[in-house]
Design brief:
Helix content is about 40%, strand content about 15%. It contains 15 helices and 13 strands. The chain has an eight-stranded parallel beta barrel with strand order 1-2-3-4-5-7-10-11, surrounded by five helices. A three-stranded mixed beta sheet has the order 6-8-9, covered by helices on one side. A two-stranded antiparallel ribbon has the order 12-13. The protein is globular and about 60 Å long. The protein starts with 10 loop residues before the first strand and ends with a helix. It binds beta-D-fucopyranose. The site of beta-D-fucopyranose (FCB) has 12 residues, from loops. InterPro entries: GH (IPR017853), GH_1_N_CS (IPR033132), Glyco_hydro_1 (IPR001360), Glyco_hydro_1_AS (IPR018120), Glyco_hydro_1_beta-glucosidase (IPR017736).
């Protein structure tokens, strides 16, 4: 294994999200979120798991910050639970919620770890779902009030802000496939939800800039390189459509303020394009300081007129993670160089990359997660090659700092570089985390 070395100022991080780790789901006046509601309904989450307790991070954050520090992590990406701040989504502010995040931020800074905040990582206040959730444009305005409050409370110390995590997942899995909260199955509504999320992103960026806080703000998209299954023209066109919905829809919107024409036509022809006032993007569009990229796997696509947008994903015969996702580091290189080519010189961060494997704590009390180490090594190597090819990649956040509640999959899928025993809440540093520590030390020397 050749030893990797990144540029000296490269930001090495790890990431988590509030609902996946915090627990304390109704403590200190926190309001109900759509994930509280969704996970408590039998059938929605594997084994009826939920985030009621999760990693109990709400009570153990100090210990967790010490763990981050011991690994030499430079930056920690976490999200804020909107219903802790506004239990009803708007109106009355819950000071106890603010205090928790203030303490966490102070603890991080005290330990030389840069906080990077995701404002929305899927846990919408249930009260806002009751008025239509993201399908209701009013929710976008409540979001801006919420974001504004966070800027004002924490903006003096927090210099990296991510407005949204993966609008594709929040809208498509939540509103079209119904496998995530709020569990709706209506593609037109999903497009509407995605649109309002994007609008709320621009409005929050504008609000942030008006405060002149001297930090950076951007959005995180889940992106996945789409390859054609064959040299056949129809398959190539199918891969392009897949790229259109998975990547270009959100990349074009976030970075150019437009939707791709070919996809608008497909959605209009199939009657799933919602009515959207045309000038909306042009009026509210704001550039981002950076783009956050979550990359896990690629897609190989073939034409199938029966499938959604006529594109079917083909399973490849390569090694896969516990999620069933093909391991394909070349896809990360292709993605980074392509975004740089097609979307200009914007700073890029990998805000999530990592793998679920079936880890065990062995008799010596160790977790020898060679498979994850290998996954991370090959993906970091791909990222380094992209930097060498001229891509302005500034940082990399491993998903995840610790094992946690993997949404519809519950606790069975472990993504952490730190193992969590959910019975005792004991944390065990995995071998991959020690590898990361060394990489950080070597690069920052
Ligand atoms: C991403 C999510 C993150 C985590 C990983 C595995 O889609 O942003 O919360 O669940 O997948």
């Amino acid at each position: 294994m050749e030893k990797l070395r990144f540029p000296k100022d490269f930001i090495f991080g790890t990431a988590t999200a509030a609902y996946q780790i915090e627990g304390a789901y109704k403590e200190d006046e926190k309001g109900e979120s759509i994930w509280d509601r969704f996970s408590h309904i039998p059938g929605n989450v594997a084994k009826m798991h939920n985030g009621d307790i999760a990693c109990d991070h709400y009570h153990r954050y100090k210990e967790d910050v010490q763990l981050l520090k011991s690994l030499g992590i430079k930056s920690y990406r976490f999200s804020i639970a909107w219903p802790r701040i506004f239990p009803k989504g708007f109106g009355e502010i819950n000071q106890k919620g603010i205090q928790f995040y203030r303490d966490l931020i102070d603890e991080l800074i005290k330990n030389d770890i840069e906080p990077a905040i995701t404002i929305y990582h899927w846990d919408l206040p249930q009260k806002l779902q009751d008025i239509g959730g993201w399908a209701n444009p009013q929710v976008a305005d409540y979001y801006v009030d919420y974001a504004n409050l966070l800027f004002r409370e924490f903006g003096d110390r927090v210099k990296t802000w991510i407005t949204h995590n993966e609008p594709w997942v929040a809208s498509y899995l939540g509103y079209a496939l119904g496998v995530h909260a709020p569990g709706i199955k209506d593609m037109k509504m999903a497009l509407l939800a995605a649109h309002n999320i994007l609008l709320s992103h621009f409005k929050a960026v504008k609000a942030y800039r008006e405060l002149e806080q001297d930090g950076q703000i951007g959005i995180t998209l889940n992106l996945s390189t789409c390859y054609s299954n064959s040299a056949d023209e129809e398959d190539i066109a199918a891969a392009h459509r897949s790229d259109g919905w998975n990547n270009r829809w959100f990349l074009d919107a976030a970075l150019k303020g437009t939707y791709p024409e070919d996809m608008i036509k497909i959605f209009s022809d199939t009657n799933i394009m919602p009515e959207l006032p045309k000038e909306l993007f042009t009026e509210v569009f704001e550039t981002s300081d950076f783009l956050g990229i979550n990359y896990y796997t690629r897609q190989v696509v073939k034409n199938n007129s029966e499938a959604f947008i006529g594109a079917e994903s083909v399973a490849m015969d390569n090694p896969k993670t516990e999620m069933g996702w093909e391991i394909y580091p070349q896809g990360l290189y292709d993605l980074l160089t392509r975004i740089h080519r097609d979307y200009g010189n914007i700073d890029l961060y990998i805000t999530e990359n990592g793998a679920a494997f079936n880890d065990m704590v062995n008799r010596d009390g160790k977790v020898e997660d060679e498979n994850r180490l290998d996954y991370l090594y090959t993906h970091f190597a791909a990222a380094l090659s992209a930097i060498e090819a001229g891509v302005p990649l500034k940082g990399y956040y491993i998903w995840s700092f610790m094992d946690n509640f993997e949404w519809a999959e519950g606790y069975e899928k472990r993504f952490g570089i730190v193992h969590v025993n959910y019975k005792t809440q004991e944390r065990t540093i995995k071998k991959s985390a020690y590898w990361y520590k060394e990489l950080i030390e070597r690069s920052n020397k």
